[in-house]
């Protein structure tokens, strides 16, 4: 069997700059720019909507779906799970308890299903903060893919896998397929650079397409040593395709963002996405939505 490499783009369709605002300019104005690049290159991808983004942008959801792209879920309002010790400080974070997981996921599904008349089967946890409890509920609700495995934190799994019901971080016999999100290995300069360090976010716009492409080659080499299939999973955002300010002003004060949240947002990001895709096409890498990749049955 000839070895293959797949690039899986996941766009987290949330309010602008994560859950720091309730604005949806990224979904409204950034999504068409992203779709133009994907369509130009005949690239499939998955768009994972929070419930509030979908509810407030029904036409965007419908147009993405009618364009042949997969629609998935990303939580009800970009809430994160109460997992105890968080990995970094998020002053705008909405935390929920395990008792709230199922009804919020069910509502997320209902909102999307009502718009596209199709049930979503792919999910990604906001901020990649996942728990065993939620994975089991995802399985029970019929999800086929969970793209929440954060390689930067967990390190162990470098390829898609079916998790164990007792510990989602280990291989097991659940139906749902776990997709690890890549990070940059062996780069001391990145590690010391900012709070995001070796994480893939937001390198496509802060470091550029060539940097990201060269970085994934090391990961692919490691994957192909143990598998005939290489898989690179991205998490990107529509708000990165519009210009984001370095601050938000409220009645009670002003919030200033770290530069990683706004640097090179807008047309530069869109251009780098296009350049990255071109480099992948030149190497004959394949593209697929999360559901398409699941259906291939490689893992």
Descriptive overview:
By secondary structure, the chain is an alpha/beta fold. It has a single domain (4-296), classed as Glycoside hydrolase/deacetylase (TIM Barrel), CATH 3.20.20. It is built from 11 helices and 12 strands. The chain has helices at 25-40, 51-56, 58-66, 101-116, 132-140, 151-154, 188-191, 203-206, 209-224, 267-282, 290-296; strands at 4-13, 46-49, 70-73, 80-81, 95-96, 122-123, 145-150, 177-181, 229-236, 247-250, 253-256, 286-287. The strands form 4 sheets. Strands 1, 2, 3, 9 and 12 form a 5-stranded parallel beta sheet that branches. Strands 6-7-8 form a 3-stranded parallel beta sheet. The longest helix has 16 residues, at 25-40. It is globular. The two termini are 15 Å apart. The model has no long low-confidence stretch (mean pLDDT 94).
Present the secondary structure layout.
Layout: E1 4-13, H1 25-40, E2 46-49, H2 51-56, H3 58-66, E3 70-73, E4 80-81, E5 95-96, H4 101-116, E6 122-123, H5 132-140, E7 145-150, H6 151-154, E8 177-181, H7 188-191, H8 203-206, H9 209-224, E9 229-236, E10 247-250, E11 253-256, H10 267-282, E12 286-287, H11 290-296
Parallel strand pairs: 1-2, 1-9, 1-12, 2-3, 4-5, 6-7, 7-8
Antiparallel strand pairs: 10-11
